[in-house]
Amino acid sequence: MKKLIYLITLFYTAPLFAVATIAHDDSIYGTNMIENIPAYSNYGGIFTYLQSEWFSVGFLIALLLVPIAGGIHYFIIGPKVFSHDGKKIYAFNLFVRIVHLLAAISFIVLVPTGFIMAFGDTFGGGVFVRTCKNLHGLATIIFCISVFPILFAWFIRMLPGRGDMKWMLSVGGYLSKEKKPVTAGKFNAGQKAWFWIAMLGGIIMILTGAMMFFQNDALIAKFAESLGLYPIDLLRLSAIVHNILGMIIAIFFMVHIYMSAIAIKGAIYSMVTGYKEEEEVKILHSYWYKELQEEGKI
Ligand code: HEM
Q1: Number of domains comprising the chain
Q2: Which of 47, 102, 107, 194 could link 146 by a cystine bridge, Cβ 3.0 to 4.6 Å?
Q3: Which H helix or E strand runs over 277?
Q4: Nearest to 287 by CA among 154, 156, 162, 159
Q5: pLDDT digits (tens, 9 = 90+) for 180-223
Q6: Which of 88, 100, 200, 245 for mutating ligand 1's site (highest number of atoms within 8 Å of CB)?
Q7: Measured in whole angstroms, how far is the alpha carbon of residue 79 from the centre of its chain?
Q8: 160: number of Cβ within 10 Å
Q9: Where does the pLDDT of residue 35 fall: very low under 50, low under 70, confident under 90, or very high at 90 and above?
Q10: How far is it, in rounded angstroms, from Cα 149 to Cα 90?
Q11: pLDDT surpasses 90 at 230
Q12: Do 46 and 240 form a contact (C-beta atoms < 8 A)?
């Protein structure tokens, strides 16, 4: 319970401490940092190994994977094209579109600045990388605002349901040019996977990011203590989780952009106007289409 209170306090007070902490230099982490790092063997070895050998490789793979796979998919199978002459089906209300826009803006800043920090050396460090770090922190505040409204707005529809397994096994019909109805409600299994990764993963990213950004803060030291860890170990663990989860989220984010802006022609407008094309709903969300018919909404 105590840990939960620390986490919640941290989540909501973190932005308030931002400015004060940037310029902070204390006796533990400041100029005496190296001498004051206790028990290197706890997580220091694994952290240094991952940081020096694997993280940059992982980020490079994450960066290239989706553009290459997306390019192959686009040129071999091609995007799905649905008629825009049929009825329009209202899918996303204004509130959802606004909070989604906030999440989108935050990620457009978070993902590239995260990559730049991961390759900080290559970018020559200095002011440019530090500015990216601060932009990364600011964009996190925007994400914090959007994450819970999205989580609550879509929670029920994103729970696993009938048809999800079948959708997974057929990869939602995306490996074929055929327009055959697939087993999905308002959201398909792929969209559900993205939702949970972005929401739960996003919250873990905020918390581990806060542990690193506010590493000098007394609250973090107390939280580490309550877990039986040295603050430096909490920092190392946070960095490991943040980096690995960051790669996974970045991959899913790029897939999300490919699916919503390229793989289904015109799908992006649904997040602008709120409306989806009838044919698209009939084929890609056949259970939802039936549900709407039964309710007499179409
Ligand atoms: C430039 C960035 C983004 C673009 C262009 C974009 C676009 C879209 C579009 C067009 C849809 C509707 C898809 C459909 O049902 O046909 C959608 C849905 C959704 N978006 Fe985004 N989005 C972006 C960023 C984000 C971010 C950052 C998050 C979460 C942190 C997010 C979470 C979702 C979720 C959960 C859905 C519903 C499920 C799905 O369609 O995948 N989006 N997005």
Answers
A1: 2
A2: 102
A3: strand 275-277
A4: 162
A5: 999 999 999 999 999 999 999 999 999 999 999 998 888 898 99
A6: 100
A7: 24
A8: 11
A9: low
A10: 19
A11: no
A12: yes
Atom index in ligand 1 nearest the CA of residue 108 equals: 1
Q: Whose CA is closest to atom 4 on ligand 1?
A: 257
Whether 187 lines ligand 1, by a CB cut-off of 6 Å, is yes
| Pocket mutation for ligand 1, best pick of 84, 194, 256, 265 (most atoms within 8 Å of C-beta) | 256
Same domain, 1 and 88: no
Residue ranges in the chain assigned as alpha helix (H): 2-22, 33-36, 44-49, 55-76, 94-118, 126-154, 164-169, 189-196, 202-213, 218-226, 231-257, 270-273, 278-284, 286-294
Query: Is 58 found in the same domain as 9?
Result: no
pTM of the entire predicted model: 0.88
Instruction: For residues 25 and 161, state if they share a domain.
Output: no
pLDDT, tens only, 99-146: 999 999 999 999 999 999 999 999 999 999 999 999 999 999 999 999
The answer to whether residues 278 and 236 belong to one domain is: yes
Output b/e per residue, 231-263; b: 16+ Cβ within 10 A: bbbbbbbbbbbbbebbbebbbbbbbbbbbbeeb
* DSSP state letter for 210: H
